[in-house]
Amino acid sequence: MDTLPIKLNFFKRVEQFFELRRLDKLYELQMSEWEEKLSNAKPDEHVQFTFPTWNVERKILYWTYFHHKHLGTHITTGFFDHNASYLSDWKTDFLEVGLTGSKQVLQNLIAHGFADDVTMPQSETSIVINSDGLLAGSILYNNYEFISRAYARDQYSWQLLSPVVHKMIGYYMLYSAAWLVIIYSISFVSFQVISTLGLLSQIKNWLVDLPQGWKVAIDELFLLPPQLLIFGAALILIGKKGYNKK
């Protein structure tokens, strides 16, 4: 049993969400580069481009949360090449997989820390989704939705996973609250040091002389972390998917 205590698991989920968002933004930048190369290419010119795999990776992770029932089952390149039902379940197709490369998708899941390499010698690439990958799948399943996206003037189109806006705002609130708690903790330690040095009375006198508006603002500032935590959690929980939904 390696389940994290609830507080640590909470912060790990927030950290994982922002790691997913980092990979989302990187994917969009890479796709923009591809579109720019296509738009600048001559009509008969072949555009060389190493296609990003993240969109297929995150769709596989999304699928693992509710539909990957035997967690020890290996996912191999054969799942992409010979089994159209898996591509349908993952909401991808032979075109997208052909551009990314099935082997490259699995290798990048390993490189991103979401899967373990279980490839046998002289065999096709094979992975098992690990605990970090299952956590990422949980976050994707409960906070993302599928949207249709066209690229290169509608020449290419496939399903993308995109964060639900109000849930993304909720995570940013939780992230801000976490940083404020850290700042307040450092401030508390600093006040302890100041008190030890005998300077606390001077700060109290300075605070007494502050205008009333500043005092109210300081009081409100100390109430901000719990407010952010409550509203952030509420935004994330609103519209949370049920277990019977795909």
What does this structure look like?
It contains ten helices and five strands; from the N terminus they run ααβααααββαββααα. The longest helix is centred in the N-terminal third of the chain and has 35 residues, at 6-40. The two termini are 28 Å apart. Helix 2 (54-67) crosses helix 7. The chain is elongated. 63% of the residues lie in helices and 10% in strands. It folds into two domains: 6-163, no CATH class; 168-237, no CATH class. A three-stranded antiparallel β-sheet has the order 1-3-2. A two-stranded antiparallel sheet has the order 4-5. With 246 residues, it is mainly alpha-helical. A hairpin with an 8-residue loop joins strand 2 (115-117) and strand 3 (126-129). The model has no long low-confidence stretch (mean pLDDT 83).
Short description:
The protein has 246 residues and is mostly helical. 63% of the residues lie in helices and 10% in strands.
